[in-house]
Design goal:
304 residues, eight-stranded mixed β-sheet, 13 helices, globular
Length: 304
């Protein structure tokens, strides 16, 4: 039976450099670009941005890292709003400017559209007008620009404003409902290649840990729980539950790579890697992840 290989990337803000570093190590080991290693690619949030760049432009993970380091892609995307610089932690507006992100993505992805892609793609977004999660694939109508999709799928609430796409609807980061698209990518691939075996390599971007004092929490109201990151806890646990369910369903057809960030002395903040020091830290963490699971990755690929 023919095997189709699917790459699935979790969301995680600028921790995308960890994922890119893992993939760059794989490219170095195999002598093959990520684009050529996989038949389909899925990504949520920042993973969706990587997906658009690799599948749209045929870029390698190594080339995207150079784009970040030499052309300052993340710094361009994370241009802080001047109001927040004045009022600091009050953050009365989205932290970063949507215009700067949109222009940077338009420059990188140009006039590429979903229908122009030679390989399969899957990216979730949340449609505010329809109040539901939606998934973009090559067959989507309207035939959106990849830059629009990359812009919308990275519009994380409080970090960026919602994005109005060509059909008039407003969308935000699909990670609010599907931060790990592994199972959805498998089901889509199975539907498209129904006679093939589908194997999924799923790479996370690290998960955050939260220390909450139970005795003190007895007196918490909404404000205190919000300050302690309850929304992030809920999203993390939903994602991990989805990962466990996907693993139970797919068995050895799935290889999932992810670790707790605190084990690698990596900041929890999703926008921590907008400077050269933290970017290098994220890249080093990715190399550690790859070295730790190199044997499993190669065994997964060879058992095809």
């Amino acid at each position: 039976m023919q095997v189709k290989h699917v790459l699935s990337l979790d969301g995680g803000g600028s921790h995308l450099l960890i994922q890119l570093s893992v993939l760059a190590c794989l490219e170095q080991d195999t002598g093959t670009s990520t684009y050529d290693l996989f038949d389909m690619m899925a990504g949520s949030s920042s993973g969706g941005l990587i997906t658009c760049l690799i599948m749209g432009r045929g870029m390698s993970a190594t080339a995207i890292i150079r784009l970040v380091e030499q052309e300052k892609l993340l710094e361009k995307i994370m241009a802080e709003h001047w109001v927040n610089r004045l009022f600091n932690k009050l953050q009365i507006r989205p932290k970063y400017q949507g215009t700067s992100k949109r222009l940077a993505l338009q420059k990188e992805l140009g006039s590429l559209r979903l229908s122009s892609l030679s390989k399969r793609i899957l990216i979730p977004c949340f449609n505010l007008n329809q109040d539901q999660l939606e998934v973009f694939t090559n067959d989507n109508q309207p035939d959106f620009l990849l830059s629009e999709i990359a812009d919308a799928c990275t519009a994380a609430p409080s970090f960026y404003p919602p994005v109005q796409m060509a059909d008039g609807d407003w969308r935000i980061d699909g990670g609010v409902g599907m931060n790990n698209p592994g199972l959805s990518s498998y089901l889509h691939a199975k539907q498209y290649w129904h006679a093939c075996e589908i194997k999924v390599l799923s790479i996370g971007s690290g998960w955050r840990s939260f220390a909450v004092n139970g005795a003190k929490a007895c007196g918490y109201g909404g404000l205190q729980w919000s300050a302690k990151g309850i929304a992030s806890i809920i999203l993390r646990e939903k994602m991990m539950a989805n990962v466990r369910m996907t693993g139970e369903m797919l068995g050895n057809r799935l290889l999932y790579i992810n670790h707790c960030l605190k084990n690698f002395d990596m900041p929890d903040s999703m926008d921590s890697a907008n400077n050269a020091v933290m970017q290098q830290k994220a890249l080093d963490v990715g190399k550690l992840w790859y070295a730790d699971q190199r044997q499993q990755i190669h065994q997964w690929m060879q058992n095809s």
